[in-house]
Amino acid sequence: MYQAEEIRKQWLDQKDLDELLRKELIEIEDQEELHDRFYRDLEFGTGGLRGILGAGTNRMNIYTVRKATQGFADYINLHYKPGGDSCKGDIPTVAIAYDSRIKSDLFAAEAACVLAANGIKTYVYPELMPTPALSFAVRHYGCCAGIMVTASHNPSKYNGYKVYGSDGCQLTLEAASEVLSLIEKVDLFKDVKTHSGGFTLEHGIIKVSAVDASLQELVQTIPTTVTEAFLAAVKNESTGMDCSDLSVVYTPLNGTGNRPVKKIMKMIGVKKVSTVREQEMPDGNFPTCPYPNPEKKEALALGIALCQKLSQEGNPPDLLLATDPDCDRVGIAVRHKNLETGTVDYQLISGNETGVLLLDYICHRRGKANMDKLAGKENPAREFPRPMPKDPIAIKTIVTTKMAEKIAKFYGVEMIDVLTGFKFIGEQIGILEENGEEHRYIFGFEESYGYLAGAYVRDKDAVNASMLICEMTAYYKKLGKTLVDRLKELYEKYGYYRNDLMEFTFEGSAGMEKMNSIMEGFRKEAPAKFIGKKVTEIADYKLSVRRVLGGGSCDLSVGSKPIRLPKSDVLEYILEDGSSIIVRPSGTEPKLKIYLSAKGSSNQNSLEIIEALRTEMAQIG
């Protein structure tokens, strides 16, 4: 605790310390809280920074943002080569975007000032934009890197800072490690170069000061033509369905999706769109949605209520769409009539279920284009413009449903598994692009509600996914079906796969220690059974090895094979019936995540397996 007091004093001794942060530090009396603010530097991982807003080295504030940006600037200048393949222009360039969170615009401006002071030119979106638009801008301008200020779907007390490479993808593990090493060398008060007084912030809009000519040269705002180009690239992935008969309720959850998602729906012909008014305008406090995550039922509550209200008035929507604050994830609920009870309600569709529905739909539509072409038919108006490519590829993460593998196999699509995190999907698209084969990529998704069709960006895109979900819903509506009906057909054809996610939160330094202890316990004393079923395989992604077991003991290996993926703190247990448990610490939150998977003989059987796994795994928290 004494060290924390010393560091607090160092902060308070800074004459130009931000006055709000100074006041905050002075008022801290609880020693545990003080310790948590200073016991470490805010961790810079593969996703960049993410933390609670406030004063301290373990908090998101202008000083920790400046320090991270200085380290990132040092990395860029170290690797930049004029006229090189990865960066265009005479000087290094970086694209910057930000979402609706508290201080996102300020942190974006601070990052631009630090980069400018280090001789790096920036292209800054003048107003809040989705994360995929940042990835697009990096590629559009041929930038060396990109910065997205967001904490994605975390509660309002958080903010964050994601970094991207020249390919528009989040930094690789090796690059992130090097950036971290450079950040660690920076004293956040003594070593940071910054350009002061060059911006004004008005209602979340960044404006470059006309007074500072040198800063005007190094900081340029991104024009609306780039946003239009981004939406055109999204529209290019359309399946061509007529959506004029579709009725949609949409909520951006007080984030960045409001304009782009509505625009893309208009571009594909959706005429009936109702918005959840309480969640329409940007608001980093998320007043009606403390945890603005479309994975959570609570986040969709107001949207479902509006759907029910419109239904009672005789105008029932077909679909509810909800995008998270930085609009890279989307959750949905669909209107469906239960034939057994006769009731009509809005049924939530999980990330895994939406992913397999989209994969099946895209494969079906592109396959139909192939058959029409072979039959010598011209595609009628609004039909999908492109057939399935030769040797098509889809990509998913290791924690995403194995049902996708069955669907891909049926359509002759190669399925690639990658580590958790969409950056690994983006990395695979980049590898295809390097070989001139990006056209082979047709779809990628992760269970946490992230989807992407098309190679125009290197991150998940809820604008893209919202468009495809609308078109898919319209397609099945014309056939007299809902997405629930189609999902039931898929389960009957490929098996009753069920997935669930358990999360255990571990706040502060003590929480981190406990989380690490749990992971270490799993490694040292791996269970021989779960819910009475033998463990037949154990995969340790940190050790890069998969062991096949015999004799019902985790000590008796009958074979092993290497895991050819980057090392990651992930453990996977495969049970004798094909069910599985995956355990890993979150890379962006103080949480331990447990992914449960079951394939039952029936819908009820798979649900029973999941519930048994939940009951047993609940004991670890």
List keywords for this structure.
22% strand, Phospho-sugar mutase, 37% helix, alpha/beta, 621 residues, 25 strands, globular, eight-stranded antiparallel sheet
Secondary-structure topology with pairs:
Elements (H helix, E strand, L loop, with lengths): L1 H11 L6 H8 L4 H8 L10 E4 L9 H18 L13 E6 L5 H14 L3 E4 L6 H11 L3 E5 L8 E7 L8 H11 L15 E4 L2 E4 L4 H6 E3 L2 H12 L11 E5 L6 H10 L4 E4 L25 H12 L6 E5 L6 E8 L6 E6 L1 H24 L18 E5 L5 H8 L3 E5 L3 H13 L6 E6 L3 E3 L9 H17 L4 H12 L1 E10 L2 H17 L4 E2 L2 E8 L4 E5 L7 E6 L8 E5 L4 E6 L5 E10 L2 H15 L4
Parallel strand pairs: 2-3, 2-4, 3-8, 9-10, 9-11, 14-15, 14-16
Antiparallel strand pairs: 1-5, 4-5, 6-7, 11-12, 12-13, 16-17, 18-25, 19-20, 20-21, 20-23, 21-22, 23-24, 24-25
Protein name: Phospho-sugar mutase
Return residue spans where pLDDT drops below 50 for at least 5 consecutive residues.
none
Distance between the termini: 27 Å
Second rung of CATH, namely the architecture of the largest domain: 3-Layer(aba) Sandwich
β-sheet strand percentage? 15-25%
Q: How is the CATH topology of the largest domain named?
A: Alpha-D-Glucose-1,6-Bisphosphate, Chain A, domain 3
Number of helices: 18
Helix content: 25-40%
Question: Could you name the CATH homologous superfamily of the largest domain?
Answer: Alpha-D-Glucose-1,6-Bisphosphate, subunit A, domain 3
Largest sheet geometry: 8 strands, antiparallel
| C-alpha-based Rg, rounded | 25 Å
Q: How many beta-strand elements?
A: 25
Query: How many domains?
Result: 5
**Level-1 CATH class name of the largest domain:** Alpha Beta
State the shape: globular
Class by alpha and beta content: alpha/beta
Mean pLDDT: 90
